[in-house]
Amino acid sequence: MSERKSNAWAGKWLLGIGFGLIWLVGGTAGAPAFAQAIKVGAATAAEGDFTVVRQDGIEEHLPGQGALPLFEGDVLKTGPGSQALIEFTNGSQVALNEGTECMLLSRWEKGKGITRILRLRGGEIWVKTAGVGPAKLEVETPVATAAVRETEFNLKVQPDGETTLTVIQGVVEFGTAFGTCPIKTGTISYGKRGKKCTKPAPTDVAPATAWVKMPRPKQP
Description:
17 strands, mainly beta, Jelly Rolls
């Protein structure tokens, strides 16, 4: 074989290897993001306009009842006059009122495991945790954070970020950048930008959850 033919053959061989590597890497990188995403729960019911925006920008909807899988990084949105109900893998339930937007996140800590996080950008949610003892669930708003124990509560975020927490049952550690305080059954507290959350005050909790119309699955 001449030197010219030898060089040509070697070039084609290297080119083939290069295309093979591109196909291999491209095929892996091009795989759908949800194939490697962590499932955190499912949307089980929706009324009106409920949208789930995946990390790759794809939007999915749940008309009525069903089981639409939810993954870490998903953004959930409800339109005017709409509601939705989601359930985490540990059985905790969250109802979203109209005009609500939140992102599903997680945090891992050594010795504590995984904590699910609801980053509530605006709107209103009702939460009921499952099981006994501290629940590994937190709700973040623009001005406050609610660290949840075994509890049921309602959280509403105003356009300016002001956050209203009403605890129906249990205890919620409610805090801003200026301090945290436990909010107990039958009390209400407000979190405002640049201030510590207000002292819990007794309240009638019934109006806080009157908006929840979604069918709530029975918990054991």
